Amino acid sequence: MGKTAADPDLVGLWEKVLITAENFRQLAPWNWMSTEDLYGIQNPVSGRFAYCCVMGSSGNSPGLVLFHGAIGLRHFENFQHREEGETDTDPPELQHCWHLSFGNKEDLFSSESVYYKSLPGTRPNIPLIREYTEGMSPWNLSNEKDLEFMLQVLEQTIEVCLRFKYDQDILERQAVDGTYLLLRTYIELEGIGLWQDEWEAQHALKPGTTEANKLYLRSNCFNLPVNRGTTWAIDLFFLPSTKKTNQGRGYQPRMLLVLDRDQGCIIGQHIFVPSEVFHGLQFKIKEYIVKKQYRPETILTTSHEAFEALEGICNVLQIKIKKQLQGVAGLRQIKETLIQANR
To answer: Which among 256, 68, 41 has a CA at the least distance from the CA of 154?
Structure first.
């Protein structure tokens, strides 16, 4: 089997990413920054933010972690708990993020090793960039948009780290309504791209419901009656089997199970690729409401992730949503049956 060929359109971009990552390593900001020093960098294409922290101050491997969007912030909080020595957080590893570390060429995927030929000699500290998604094996960045954003993150991170070295108050601002976080945002003026500082209240950085979602909900779901006394119980869990995407990436499927708690009947069930869970869960719940032609009065969920995905939808539809982390009896029995069937 022949070696993977380099994409000529990506060679120059990969070279810039690797050089900038090496500049970051030589700067060694972990000597004055810790994982508690969080800041955001906007993706100029999508408008979304990656929330970044420098690793290495507490003796772990030096590098950089980018947690993607509001969902990534929850994983950052779990990551912080582990840094502080807590062990009961879920999930137990980096998730919903990109991770830059430094290692050996033996750690490279064949699809990316072709871009590392420009690195001098057999350096033991070459940049390794991995994407982590809950339930999926680590993967490398492979498309132009991701590489361009990684380059921008590295460039902006170097600037933020240098500023923080001489002014440790730049990352946060205190106000009456809470703590505001530094965001590096991208704007274009007369065709020139510029980066600037903005601050966002941390309490506002949580998953929400888009305007398009609100329009759909009001048009298709809000006019449906509320079935008083009806409670839907929702669980979201991994199945004990391993699948592969078309690109060969391994993953554990995630099962959505929705039960009418009082009737004991299944409203719906669906298997997701882990990377599709957040938006897929929102879509399926809307689908079940339209199919049943009513809104439940209450939704109970055993999953933090399901709660965050559905909280905005439930607010729009005036459905009570509650966490019941100890589980729901009927739901637990069906879940155990499905897990056993998939072993």
So the answer is: 41
- In DSSP notation, 183-213 reads EEEEEEETTEEEEEEEEEEGGG-S----HHH
**95, two tokens:** 């998730």
DSSP structure string for 268-292: EEEEE-GGGHHHHHHHHHHHHHHHH
Per-residue pLDDT for 93 more than 60?
no
**What one-letter code names the amino acid at 76?**
F
Q: In what order do the strands lie in the sheet with 266-272?
A: 266-272, 254-260, 226-238, 295-301, 320-323
| Element at 155 (helix H, strand E) | helix 144-166
Which residues, at least 6 apart from 89, have a Cβ–Cβ distance to it below 8 Å?
78, 81, 82
Contact criterion met (CB below 8 Å) for 314 and 336 = no
pLDDT the model gives residue 89: 36
Mean pLDDT over the full length of the chain: 84
Summarize pLDDT for 102-149 with one digit per residue, the tens.
Answer: 988 888 888 888 888 766 555 668 899 999 887 788 888 888 999 999
Which pairing describes strands 243-244 and 250-251: parallel, antiparallel, or unpaired?
antiparallel
| Cβ partners under 8 Å of residue 72, min gap 6 | 50, 51, 66, 96, 97
